[in-house]
Write a structure and sequence with these properties.
Helix content is 75%, strand content 0%. It is built from four helices and no strands. It is globular.
Length: 127
C-alpha cells in the first residue's frame, strides 16, 4: 500500500519569488536592526532568531499540509538568524568571506549527511 504524502512546501510560482526576495531582504535588514540599531549584538540576535526558527519549524512540522504563514515565518526567522551568523563569522571572528563560506559549506555538508543518514534521502517532499 502506498502512503499518502502531504505536500508541505509551496508551489514555485511568481508570487513565491516575490515573497522570497522580500523575506531575504527582511533577513538582511532585520539582522542589522536587532544587532546594530537595537545594539543587541550578533550573539543575542542569533539566539533570538534561532529560538524563533525552532518554534516556527516545530509548528510547521506538526502541520500535515502546507501552511503559508508557518512556512514564511520559518523562512524569515532562518534568514535573519543566518544573516546574523554570517555577520558574526565575518565581522566578529574576522574570518572573512572566503573562510566563512568554507566553514558554512562544511556545516551544510554535515547537516545534509546527518539528514540523509536519518531520513534515508534528502527529499523535501517527506519532511
Amino acid at each position: 500500500m502506498s502512503e499518502l504524502i502531504h505536500n508541505r512546501v509551496p508551489k514555485i510560482i511568481f508570487l513565491y519569488w516575490v515573497i522570497k526576495i522580500a523575506s531575504t531582504t527582511l533577513g538582511e535588514t532585520g539582522a542589522d536592526m536587532f544587532s546594530m540599531t537595537f545594539d543587541l549584538g550578533y550573539g543575542v540576535t542569533i539566539l533570538i532568531f534561532l529560538a524563533l526558527f525552532v518554534v516556527f519549524l516545530s509548528l510547521k512540522l506538526r502541520l500535515s499540509e502546507y501552511n503559508a504563514l508557518a512556512y514564511w515565518l520559518t523562512f524569515t526567522a532562518s534568514a535573519i538568524a543566518g544573516t546574523a551568523i554570517c555577520d558574526f563569522i565575518d565581522r566578529t571572528l574576522g574570518l572573512g568571506y572566503t573562510l566563512g563560506s568554507v566553514l558554512l559549506l562544511v556545516l551544510l555538508g554535515i547537516v545534509l549527511v546527518v539528514w540523509h543518514f536519518i531520513e534515508g534521502s534528502l527529499s523535501v517532499e517527506r519532511i
